[in-house]
Amino acid sequence: MSSSSRSITTEFIDTPEGISAFVEHIASQKGTAQPFLYLDLEGTRLSQDGTISLLTVLFAPGPSRERSYLIDIEALQHSAFTAIDSRGTTLKDILEDPNILKVFFDVRNDSDALYAHYRIKLNGIRDVQLMESASRTTTYQRRLVSGLAKCIEGTLTGQEKIHWKRSKDDGERLWNPEKGGP
Predict the structure, then answer these.
(1) Which structural domain, as residue segments, surrounds residue 169?
(2) 121 shares a domain with 75
(3) pLDDT, tens digit, for every residue of 16-61?
(4) Is there a contact between 102 and 91 (Cβ–Cβ < 8 Å)?
(5) Residue 141 falls inside a structural domain
(6) Same domain, residue pair 178 and 129
(7) Residue 149: partners with Cβ closer than 8 Å, 6 or more residues away
(8) For the whole model, what pTM was predicted?
(9) Please, where are the H alpha helices in 28-157?
(10) Regarding beta strands 37-42 and 9-13, do their DSSP bridges make them parallel or antiparallel, or are they unpaired?
(11) What is the mean pLDDT of the chain?
């Protein structure tokens, strides 16, 4: 089955109990050899001077087991990162654990905002933007980083690009007031 026809279940989390269940599920997968958490933060002027509204997580412990989560940071505030599971683990613990691999695209503002607002020191991070830049053949080509769309364009087929763009637009309409979101 191609990635453009696969459906991924999405769960919206806006309670401390939902965070605890999410953390329990993620923590139970600790030790996976390859990256399995793909994350992105959204907010207003995302940085130490802005706000964090939403954390999107793609949990991918293996083929055909992907699940996505939208975590309402605006509603949960600190409890998003301090709610504990049955083992005493928090989302903050997961984000700071060097043994749980996490993938971001351009982690700079996300990291800045998480530390400034919640004292989270990200660890175990793979930055796709940085990896893409490092893969270029000359120093001159590495002078500037590319945006997500440019990095993705060269790797997808026509149908995959259409599906990716549609999914990205659908997700943005969930949170961005300029696109109809709250």
Answers:
(1) 147-182
(2) yes
(3) 999 999 999 888 877 655 657 888 898 888 888 888 999 999 887 7
(4) no
(5) no
(6) no
(7) none
(8) 0.74
(9) 73-76, 79-82, 91-96, 108-118, 128-134, 148-153
(10) unpaired
(11) 82
